[in-house]
Specification:
It comes from Podarcis muralis (Wall lizard). The chain has 298 residues and is an alpha/beta fold. It has helices at 13-17, 32-50, 80-89, 95-101, 129-141, 155-164, 183-190, 205-210, 240-254, 272-288, and strands at residues 2-7, 102-107, 111-113, 121-124, 145-147, 151-154, 167-174, 177-182, 195-198, 216-220, 262-264, 291-293. The protein has two domains: 2-109, no CATH class; 113-297, P-loop containing nucleotide triphosphate hydrolases (Rossmann fold). β10, α9 (240-254) and β11 (262-264) form a beta-alpha-beta unit. The longest helix is centred in the first third of the chain and has 19 residues, at 32-50.
Length: 298
């Protein structure tokens, strides 16, 4: 895990720096400012090493810091960020002031992917995937979406193909047959220029990406405050507690994804029709975006 340091200041950093001139000395060791900056930077690094901040996967609407791992060296000469930090260092008299004035933002190296073909869609909480898919297809979305139909294969064929192919999703239908989704099933839908709707959980995201299939992950937020909105989507009210538990589990899974996800806030819709409209809009928005893959998470 790599770390960056963000300054917390009520005044824009660029405005603050514009009031001071920065002259790079011919001998950095002779500069009191650089010597003090070096000392304080060491203190910051110690602060970083003691930090227990947990990395959290951001959704695709949040700002993402992109770092290339090919060249981690930073040139100090003429670098605006370095000038800004040196100016800020003069304001601190102790390590405690540094701790109060800086916050840590965890980040990792990511690789950009541009995908022209329609991407498959995964829903979370998984418990509602089947219902969302059925309602999307029944609401006039059949022109844009298609259900990913699994293959039904024998147990023997399942064991054989498991050794040679990537199985995105599998379920034992009975003691003799398995229900499986292969990459070919998803590719067949994409070839029709449609989004493949998957009932599988987000746990298959890594397998999809390894197969160079980049899903759109939609996180529909469920909480005690908005659980009533989902009653029409549940088979009976008794499974509300189960839905909340599943949602919390799925939310933890999101943090381990090698890609970003898109969140649908509870206050963004008032009816099931609104929710379906927003889902379609989100899918379209995500399709236009660059995909960022964290290969360390694969």
């Amino acid at each position: 895990m790599r770390w960056t340091v963000r300054t917390v200041h009520s005044e824009p950093l660029g405005t603050h720096c514009s009031r001071k001139r920065f002259c790079h000395p011919s001998d950095p060791k002779a500069s009191p400012r650089l010597s003090r900056a070096s000392f304080l930077l060491g203190q910051i690094l110690q602060f970083v090493s003691r930090s227990e901040n947990k990395y959290k996967r951001m959704n695709s609407n949040e700002r993402v810091r992109i770092v290339t791992s090919k060249d981690t060296r930073v040139r100090t000469e003429g670098h605006p960020v370095t000038k800004a930090l040196l100016d800020r260092f003069e304001e601190f008299d102790s390590v405690s002031e540094i701790n109060k004035s800086f916050s840590l933002i965890p980040y990792s190296s990511v690789r950009p992917i541009h995908c022209d073909r329609r991407r498959p869609v995964l829903f979370t909480p998984t418990m509602l995937s089947k219902t969302f898919i059925q309602k999307l297809l029944n609401s006039g979305g059949a022109l844009e979406f298609n259900l990913c139909k699994p293959d039904i294969i024998t147990k023997e064929e399942f064991c054989r193909r498991q050794k040679t192919e990537t199985i995105i999703y599998s379920r034992e239908k009975n003691p003799h047959t398995h229900e499986c989704i292969f990459t070919a099933n998803i590719d067949a839908v994409a070839a029709k220029n449609k989004h493949c709707l998957l009932e599988a959980g987000i746990g298959c995201t890594k397998d999809l990406i390894k197969a160079r299939i980049y899903p759109i992950v939609l996180f529909i937020k469920v909480s005690e405050k908005n659980i009533k909105k989902f009653r029409k989507l549940l088979p009976n009210p008794l499974v509300e507690d189960e839905l909340l538990r599943t949602c919390r589990q799925n939310e933890k899974e999101l943090e381990g994804l090698p890609c970003l996800y898109s969140s649908l806030e509870a206050d963004a819709w008032s009816s099931i029709e609104d929710l379906l409209r927003i889902i379609k809009e989100k899918v379209w928005e995500e399709q236009q975006k660059t995909i960022w893959i964290d290969e360390d998470q694969l």
